[in-house]
């Protein structure tokens, strides 16, 4: 699936991150209850890998946490993509947003305000400061298949979601395989919701590849 997704992303002129975000937004919209015809705005936040933005860039072998972020991206549930064509169109729109934010230097300015935002989260959790969804995309990680007598067969990234009442997805490629981890603070985000998000997101990506 990874090879086919990469090939289709190249054909559509986007990277993997916008494609996955398009699938995530579509999957999320399918799980958001809509009452009495009222629309809901979804906001997705993306963590950006800042290593290549330093002067001089930090090599990929540095496994420290070099993370920043860009402005959230909003989409109404009613505007969520419903066909593979719509999914790729949203991926291209998000790619434009992502590139504009990065080129504007937001991932360098973000740390200046992130501390203040985190201060607000240290007390009682305020939902107004929490996006609908959070995604962290790390690209190709510098692992190898063999470490002496030990073989790396899989990896599972994790982070402390205790005070993060929103579903999250971590995306990375290890040894040529795209890995996606769906995380949520149970029972705020029930396991059943995470499973549904995972399954629907995988279905959307599969549709994007074959159609």
From TrEMBL:
Coiled coil: none annotated. The chain crosses the membrane at residues 177-197. One of its GO terms (molecular function) is acyltransferase activity. Residues 2-156 form the Phthiocerol/phthiodiolone dimycocerosyl transferase C-terminal domain. Gene3D superfamilies: Chloramphenicol acetyltransferase-like domain, Nonribosomal peptide synthetase, condensation domain. Keywords: Acyltransferase, Membrane, Transferase, Transmembrane, Transmembrane helix. This is Phthiocerol/phthiodiolone dimycocerosyl transferase C-terminal domain-containing protein. It comes from Adineta steineri.
